[in-house]
Amino acid sequence: MTRRTIRASEIGAFLYCRRAWWYRLQGVEPQNREVLGEGTAYHLRHGKEVWLASLIRLAGWLFLSGALILLVVGLTLYVLR
Fold first, then answer.
1. To 5 degrees, how large is the angle CA 7–CA 12–CA 15?
2. The domain containing residue 14 runs over which residues?
């Protein structure tokens, strides 16, 4: 009995469509490769957009933090004069 690694994507494929999972195990090639390729390209674009949005959000928090620090320092200097 040989052991093989079961990946999360395989579990997802099994849960989504057991028949498609079984066909893949049998080596049956999908007939809609173009559509699958478009889906892969879409997910790559979406992943980049999510990464960029996270980076922009981080930059926003950093700018907000910097502005608050400058405000506190400015008010402190104003009060101490």
1. 130
2. 1-30
